């Protein structure tokens, strides 16, 4: 079956619903991954060797947990987190359920990028703040997060793009969204029209996220 414009028009309500489900999933997951991943990324940096809150044990434990989750393929993570998902949202299908696995996958991803952004800060700036008598909290709030703001925006952008890909994969287990639409119509029914449409939608969405993210990162980086 080739591309059929009339068939595509008929499917517009389904496509709109799937698109909104995808936005819903990645929005929830982004908020959760940012709220939890940001302090984890900061903690990974400030507890590292030679930093003002150096703590080898904390750094090693958090680093191990972050690496462990990141090493698990998302499709396996989806299945492994079914009990947790069912406990938290009382269901294992739909966009809300998929948001649990998406959040768990995105937290360590975002945390590592935040850590990398913090490492790009000139250590002299941190040392100057310490010499001036700044508390650890003041250094984190007024120096680290301020200096790394452009890198953090880029981290959010990269996380969003990864979440788009993960959300499409969530369709395999009935997570809803664009991926679910592609599986149900495009794969099981050999519907090339919906397959092409979903791919185009995902490409456009990723390009828009990257464009907007780059512009914001450049804007906040202006001294």
UniProtKB/TrEMBL annotation:
Keywords for the protein's UniProt record, in alphabetical order: Cell membrane, Membrane, Transmembrane, Transmembrane helix, Transport
Keyword Ribosomal protein: no
InterPro entries: AA_ABC_Transporter_Permease, MetI-like, MetI-like_sf
Entry membrane topology: Multi-pass membrane protein
PROSITE patterns for this protein: ABC_TM1
Entry keyword annotation includes Kinase: no
Pfam family, one: BPD_transp_1
Principal subcellular localization: membrane
Subcellular location, record wording: Cell membrane
GO cellular component, one term: plasma membrane
Family, as annotated: Belongs to the binding-protein-dependent transport system permease family. CysTW subfamily.
Name assigned to this protein: ABC transporter permease
């Amino acid at each position: 079956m080739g591309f059929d414009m009339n068939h595509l028009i008929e499917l517009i309500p389904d496509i709109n619903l799937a698109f909104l489900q995808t936005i819903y999933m990645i929005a929830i997951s982004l908020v959760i991954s940012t709220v939890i991943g940001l302090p984890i990324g900061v903690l990974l940096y400030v507890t590292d060797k030679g930093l003002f809150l150096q703590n080898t044990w904390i750094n090693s434990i958090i680093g191990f947990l972050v690496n462990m989750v990141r090493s698990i393929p998302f499709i396996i993570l989806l299945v492994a987190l079914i009990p947790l998902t069912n406990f938290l949202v009382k269901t294992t299908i739909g966009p809300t359920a998929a948001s649990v696995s998406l959040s768990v996958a995105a937290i360590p991803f975002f945390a590592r990028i935040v850590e990398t952004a913090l490492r790009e800060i000139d250590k002299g700036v941190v040392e100057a703040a310490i010499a001036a008598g700044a508390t650890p909290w003041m250094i984190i709030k007024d120096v680290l997060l301020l200096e790394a703001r452009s890198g953090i925006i880029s981290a959010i952008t990269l996380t969003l793009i990864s979440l788009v890909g993960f959300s499409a994969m969530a369709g395999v287990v009935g997570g809803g969204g664009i991926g679910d639409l592609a599986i149900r119509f495009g794969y099981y029914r050999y519907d090339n029209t919906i397959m092409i449409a979903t791919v185009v939608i995902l490409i456009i969405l990723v390009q828009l996220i990257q464009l907007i993210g780059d512009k914001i990162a450049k804007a906040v980086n202006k001294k």
